[in-house]
Design brief:
mainly alpha; two-stranded antiparallel ribbon; 3 helices; 56% helix
C-alpha cells in the first residue's frame, strides 16, 4: 500500500517511517523554539515572505573562507615560532 501512495519515496518498512517522523518532530521543535521558545529575542516570522527572519544576522557571521583563513594564519604563526 505504501508504494501506491508514495511510489518514489523508497520507504519500505515501518522503522523508516518512524525515523522520518522523529526527524520531522525534531525539526519542528527547532523552528518552534526559534519563534516561540526561550531566547527568541532576535527571531521572528515574516508573513509576507513566509520565512524566519532575524535582526543583525550578519553581525557575527563567518564564512567557511573566513574560518579557513583564520586556521591558516594560526598555522603559519605556529610554524614560524618553531623555526626560530
Amino acid at each position: 500500500m505504501l508504494e501506491k501512495v508514495l511510489p518514489h519515496a523508497m520507504l519500505k518498512a515501518k522503522p523508516n517511517l518512524e525515523s522520518r517522523i522523529r526527524t520531522l518532530k525534531m525539526d519542528w521543535a527547532t523552528v518552534y523554539d526559534l519563534l516561540n521558545g526561550k531566547d527568541n529575542s532576535s527571531f521572528g516570522w515574516d508573513e509576507h515572505r513566509q520565512m524566519v527572519v532575524t535582526k543583525d544576522a550578519m553581525k557575527y557571521a563567518q564564512t567557511t573562507a573566513d574560518i579557513v583563513e583564520e586556521i591558516d594564519a594560526e598555522g603559519v604563526a605556529t610554524a614560524n615560532n618553531i623555526e626560530e
